[in-house]
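Hi R.,

As promised, here are both runs. First protein below:
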Amino acid sequence: MSIWKLLGMKTVDPVAGSRSAESDTVRKIVDRLGGLPPDRARYIAMFAFLLSRVANADLSISQEETHAMERIVAEKGGLPEEQAVIVVHMAKTENLLFGGTDNFSVAKEFQQVADREQRIALMRCLFAVSAADHSISTVESNVIRQIGDELGLEHSDFVRLRTEFREHLAVLRSIDRPPAD
């Protein structure tokens, strides 16, 4: 007997279940992008969700990270600032509520709709959001690496992009500083 039946619940197909949960998460954001073509709105919704995933990696989304996400979503999505603010707010909320279950499925769907250059651009934006507060924590860096893996990117892509943000890496800052007395 499955745990689901024991608890009196329907049996859940993990693949179908995560797909429908992901669709609900992304769909809520897409609904706020009503004037855009559906494929473009879906792309922006997934992009914003993944930005919020890395911003929340350390369980705290700073104002600097939020402003960076808003700027990036406005620029990359071609959205007016007001709409970008709404999209980022929704992405942050959805990530806080459903991030644990939707993180992988949203990244895999993004991989399917984005070409290699778009996935690399997303990774660069993930580092930019993490660096918004002038420090990329090890946890944030690890989440970016995980997203890169889920996007089907090579480790060398991650290393190259991470090097661009070297001055913000918290782990290297501790090495560069002399020991305290």
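And here is the second one, sequence first, then its structure tokens:
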Amino acid sequence: MRILGIDPGSEVTGYGIIETDGATHRAVLFGAIRTVARHPLHKRLLRIHEELCAVLGREPVDAVAVEGMFHAVNVQSALRLGHARGVALLAGAQFDVPLFEYSPMEIKNAIVGYGRAEKGQVQAMVRFLLGLADVPSPADAADALAVAICHSHCSATRNLIAKAAQR
């Protein structure tokens, strides 16, 4: 299974594709889409959309997993993040790929085993789980890979539960 993980942001959106059999994971591609903060929001969103569509056009995936919202103190930041998330969801929908959303706490719990883990702990586990020599850079790409790994773990659990229910 190939999973595209997305860590949305209006200035930097991380993306990462893993290939997994449910037990072992391999990084296929990862990076970040950077926008110019002084550009109008609609131009930044267009760039994010175009880049995500380019990735989806080049790399076939079986699922797209997107980091969900968190409680933000700054309302403007939360709104911009919501717009970037919407663009990521739209890109996945345009390619007719199943979409899944996970909260930051769910992602940290799936990767580290603790929902309030620090960013560095998550990045170190992503490096370990993918067998990489270094922590993926930039940090947004590592976060996106964490989202993809989280989906792999959660979908494996869902499959086990479904099989058990059929007995």
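A quick note on the second one: The chain has a mean pLDDT of 92. Let me know what you think.

Best,
J.
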